[in-house]
Amino acid sequence: MNQKLPKTCGVALLASLMLLTAGCSGNNKAVNSTNETSGSDTSPITFSFFGADANPNWNNMQDDVGKEITAKTGVTLDAEFDVGSGGGQDRISLMAASGEYPDIIYAKGELGKLVDAEAIIDLTDLIDKYAPNIKKVMSKDMNRMKYSNENQAIYSIPTNTGVDQQVFDVTSGFEIQLRVLKELGYPEIKTVQQYESALKEYVAKHPTTDGQPTIPLSLNGDGWKSMITVTNQAAATTGGAGDGEYYVVPETYQTMLHYKRPEEKEYFRWLNHMYNEGLLDKDSFVQKDDQYKSKISSGRVLGLTSVEWEYGDAENALKAAGKDEYTYAHFPVTLGTQYKDNTLQAIGVDGYGISITTACKDPVRAIKFIDWLSSDEGQVLRNWGVEGKQYNIENGVRVIPEEIRNQKINDAPTFANKTGVDLYTSFGVRYGDGVKDSTGNYYTTNFPEQIIASYSEPEKEALAAYKATTWKDLFPAEDEFPVKPWGALYNMQVPTDGDYQVVYQKTQDIVHKRIPEAILAKPADFDKLYDAFIAELNKAGAEKMEQEYTELVKARVSLFTGKDVQ
């Protein structure tokens, strides 16, 4: 990384209210200018930033929202983002090894490496003294920001989940193209067998799409994306709760690598069947992420088992080309009717977040920046854009003009790059969908009226055929499940030293090798290969690792609930 420490340079003028003397300083002591509206320092300052997610639409804060953020706070971000689908793992490992860090970081699941390297500041006192908006939004969930029972420092402010989030739509599950559903008369899609039948019937009628071979089902086996499209679905289709690599027994909090569940073996047996029937893309485990997306954007992939954020770029290309009928519906597909999809089970406030590193020479200014973005004004700006450009206020109601909505839906990358809407989500805490501010308007643009207005005509037609208004209506409701007392386990920090990481990596290597091997095998060899896979996990130390993970889950439940868990 080309490390740049934050610095303040040049002259700051406040609309002729005052003339400031200015200098160029390497010690990041900001010139003291005052915004008379907010009473905060708005002198120019630059913070370096690294985000562990790719952000191809980032425009160096030269978009409408970015310019407004700088005008209000004085802050400019010298930002870099992970390239591709690495989740920041390689870059953050290098940071921890070299001791060179950006001022602010969104580390995702790699936070533990930085904490162990003593690279992250405990934000507890900074939040208490300088962050009234963060305290307001997180008032009911302060315990969920603490690192662990043993170390109750706040190293990360959760920004990828919204407080009091309501779910109005579902963007995951098993996807199938709208054109398929329409031609087949909108068949019932609840089990893998029904899903398979629809794909099989359609591809028999349409073996090619625009001159290329039609692909019934494609998976993304490129690196960690295989969790999203391959292995997570084994849990989801069999009543698992979406807890990463593990399954947690709700009554006891005992954990196991979820592949060990006998019912999940049957899901992988189904994928093996799909491959041998010629219905699963033969390149699923050798293609790269961009090749997978290229196939989707061509319109010839009928089915996916994923999440919109994973394939969204490709679907946006279809929308931009006017091929709405080639985009996807979402279904809660299970291995059988005895299972219930729990996509809508709530996790509470918990998730990846933003941190300030020890390299930051002005952490007070940094936390104030994050706090402003967490204010009502900052949240509305990040979610809605700039008034008069991305939305208007009519009779006290925020309204997105039709032409702006069309740009947002049909040319999403260009819209994001130009406006900055939704590009700054990770920089502050926020209220979730369905929460209203003091003006009676929603903080976010994801509420029923806006969601329904964003659907294409083929989507509306399909939903009407299934007697639904949004895709959520097809899924088991949130109130059918308890809130997870352990939150989002993908965000739980695990030991970064000792045997745990060694064993975990061994098991991951085994999973990435043996699951595809079993799926691509002859049906007669499946049981032998799968049973050998489980035995290999145990030989690598999985059982001891599972015991250690169980204790971590119990401690997390205790931290979140304030109750002793045995």
Brief rundown of the structure:
With 566 residues, this protein is an alpha+beta fold. It has helices at residues 64-73, 89-98, 111-116, 124-130, 132-137, 178-183, 192-205, 225-236, 262-276, 289-298, 308-320, 363-373, 376-384, 402-410, 412-419, 448-454, 457-465, 499-519, 526-539, 542-561; strands at residues 45-51, 75-81, 104-106, 157-158, 174-177, 208-209, 212-213, 215-217, 246-248, 255-257, 301-304, 328-331, 353-356, 392-394, 397-399. The strands form five sheets. The protein has a five-stranded mixed β-sheet. A four-stranded mixed β-sheet has the order 8-11-5-12, with helices on both faces.
Report the sheet with the most strands, covering strand number, pairing sense and barrel closure: 5 strands, mixed
Shape: globular
- Helix content estimate: 25-40%
**Oligomerization state:** single chain
Radius of gyration: 24 Å
Structural class: alpha+beta
State the name of the first-level CATH class of the domain at 45-164 and 349-384 and 423-427: Alpha Beta
Distance between the termini: 44 Å
Low-confidence stretches: 1-39
SS field, number of helical segments: 20
What is the arithmetic mean of pLDDT?
Answer: 90
CATH architecture assignment name of the domain at 45-164 and 349-384 and 423-427:
3-Layer(aba) Sandwich
> Looking at this structure, what is the CATH superfamily of the domain at 45-164 and 349-384 and 423-427?
Periplasmic binding protein-like II
Say how many strands there are: 15
Q: Within the largest sheet, what's the order of strands?
A: 2-1-3-13-4
Strand content: 5-15%
Briefly note the CATH topology name of the domain at 45-164 and 349-384 and 423-427. D-Maltodextrin-Binding Protein, domain 2
